[in-house]
């Protein structure tokens, strides 16, 4: 596996990106609604540092940066972000509450029965977040342990299959899981390594939590959209291709994952896009 360590040099850029994000006080400060050809409603996570984070009326993270880039390429000047919890993503698309979803949304065959996907725009891997002094080194150490994940995520299903003896607790947000692990109430949190790195880098968890660093799945982040909307899918893919070609994708990776020292797998990133269907 070829890895590229994203170092702390991106911290200053990350702060600037968070403060200057297109979806901030004016453009993206409304949690849904809107109309007109210049408006677009995009689902993101609100509680994932480094990926999709809402602080006041400001939105930051890798998903946010990719979403804003794509929206601009689509000619949308009014980006309105909507909270998209894992278990609600398909319903948000089906009911028209959002036009697109950028929310660490792994492409799976089961989900493709309900929605269509553009992308992928990033490939992550499932890992574990544990206390800094924990002896857990991977899924094999989880038998009988208290493990946390989020309802509706692929992470919970993966662990159930791999470790039947695990005591799985499912919360509605990853932030609740991280807090419980930090307090010793649970042994580990499992989800994508990108999400875990964001929590480990937060001030309140520095020195307390660590990412195990042994990914055991491949999570291909796609852009969720209405099933069968091939035209929109192709437009999004064109925007993603341009983002990679002009260097904006690399900058977004550095800005958002740099402060956590996250290692990006350069064999799978940036990923090859799927054909729209």
Structural description of this entry:
This protein has 8 helices and 15 strands. It is of the alpha/beta class. The strands form 5 sheets. Strands 11-10-12-9-13 form a 5-stranded mixed β-sheet, sandwiched between helices. Strands 6-2-7 form a 3-stranded parallel β-sheet. α1 packs across α8, α2 crosses α7 and α2 packs antiparallel against α8. About 10% of the residues have low confidence.
Please give the structural blueprint.
Blueprint: E1 3-5, H1 11-20, E2 39-44, E3 47-48, E4 52-55, E5 58-60, H2 62-73, E6 78-83, H3 89-94, E7 100-101, E8 115-124, E9 126-131, E10 146-150, H4 154-162, E11 167-171, H5 174-182, E12 188-192, H6 193-200, E13 209-211, E14 219-226, H7 230-245, H8 248-257, E15 263-265
Parallel strand pairs: 2-6, 2-7, 10-11, 10-12
Antiparallel strand pairs: 1-15, 3-4, 4-5, 8-14, 9-12, 9-13
Order of helices and strands: EHEEEEHEHEEEEHEHEHEEHHE
The average pLDDT value, as a whole number, equals 87
Q: How would you describe the shape?
A: globular
Largest sheet properties: 5 strands, mixed
Number of helices: 8
Using only CA atoms, what is the Rg?
A: 18 Å
End-to-end separation: 30 Å
Which consecutive residue ranges, at least 5 long each, have pLDDT under 50?
Answer: 7-35
Strand fraction band? 25-35%
The main sheet orders its strands as 11-10-12-9-13
Question: Structural class, judged by helices and strands?
Answer: alpha/beta
- Proportion of helical residues: 25-40%
Question: How many β-strand stretches?
Answer: 15
């Amino acid at each position: 596996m070829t890895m590229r360590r994203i170092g702390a040099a991106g911290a200053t850029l990350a702060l600037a990106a968070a403060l200057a994000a297109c979806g901030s006080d004016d453009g993206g400060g409304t949690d849904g609604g809107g109309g007109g050809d210049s408006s677009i409603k995009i689902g993101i996570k609100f509680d994932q540092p480094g990926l999709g984070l809402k602080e006041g009326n400001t939105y930051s993270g890798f998903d946010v940066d990719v979403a804003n880039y794509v929206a601009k390429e689509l000619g949308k000047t009014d980006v309105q972000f909507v909270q998209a919890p894992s278990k609600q993503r398909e319903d948000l698309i089906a009911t028209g509450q959002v036009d697109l979803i950028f929310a660490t949304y792994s492409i799976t065959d089961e989900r493709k029965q309900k929605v269509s996907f553009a992308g992928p725009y990033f490939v992550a891997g499932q890992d574990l977040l544990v206390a800094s002094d924990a002896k857990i080194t991977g899924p094999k150490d989880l038998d009988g342990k208290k493990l946390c994940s989020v309802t509706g995520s692929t992470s919970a299903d993966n662990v159930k299959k791999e470790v039947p003896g695990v005591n799985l607790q499912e919360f509605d947000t990853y932030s609740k899981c991280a807090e419980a692990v930090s307090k010793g109430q649970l042994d580990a949190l499992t989800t994508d390594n990108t999400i875990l790195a964001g929590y480990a880098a937060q001030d309140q968890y520095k020195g307390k939590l660590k990412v195990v660093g042994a990914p055991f799945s491949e999570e291909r982040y796609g852009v969720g959209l209405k099933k069968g909307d091939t035209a929109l899918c192709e437009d999004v893919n064109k925007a993603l291709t341009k983002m990679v070609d002009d260097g904006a994708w690399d900058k977004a990776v550095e800005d958002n994952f740099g402060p956590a020292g996250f290692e990006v797998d350069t064999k799978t990133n940036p990923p090859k896009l799927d054909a729209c269907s």
